Structure formats: structure tokens, C-alpha cells
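Much of the work behind modern protein science is quiet bookkeeping, done one molecule at a time. Below is the pair of lines this work produces for a single protein:

***
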Amino acid sequence: MIEDRPEEEPVDEDAVIDPADSGAIDPLDEAPGGPTRHERSKPLEMLGISAGCGLFAGLITLLATRDWLLGGVMFGVAFIIGLVVLAMLSLGGYEAQQPPSKDGVLRDNERKQDLGH
């Protein structure tokens, strides 16, 4: 027995679909409280800078020795060292400034500021 199904509306192939009308969420939009675009691209910046350092070291070694293997090894060594150094520097970062406490009790970072450290 064949069921009666409602007929679907014909689809206009020339129509422009606007993602804003469909209610779809763009994954590149910043969510409130989520990471910013700069924070998300930070690892790519580190990889790019490390690759640049590695390329520089590899090319200098390759031009000086004319040995492809040694140039590749130096590229890898400089890339890894650059990546580790940049990662350690980013972990060191800076400490965020906190407003003074309202209860008058000095916190650890406020004591250091009062002592002139």
C-alpha cells in the first residue's frame, strides 16, 4: 500500500543561500569567553617562526658544505630548538595585573609590588 506523502517544494538552483538565514553557526566567529582569533593562531605563528629559523640554518649549511643531508639535519635541529625556545618563552609570559583587594588584605603579588620587586 502506497502512503500519500506531501509534495516537496521545487528547489530553485539559482537561489543564493545565506548562511545567516539558516541559523548555522560560523565556527570562525568568536564565542563569548572563548579563545580569540589571535590566541588560536599563536601555535601557527610559532611553527612559522621556527620553520623560518630552520630554513635559514639549513640553507646556510647547505651553501657552505654542499651536502644535502647535513643541510636537512641542520634544518631539523634548528626547527626543533627554535620551537622549544619559543614555547618556553610563551609559557614564561607576563602575569596579569589584578585589582587591589577590597578587604584591605595584601595578596602575594601586591606584597611584591609594595616591596618594590
Observations:
- The two ends are 86 Å apart (CA to CA).
- The mean pLDDT is 77.
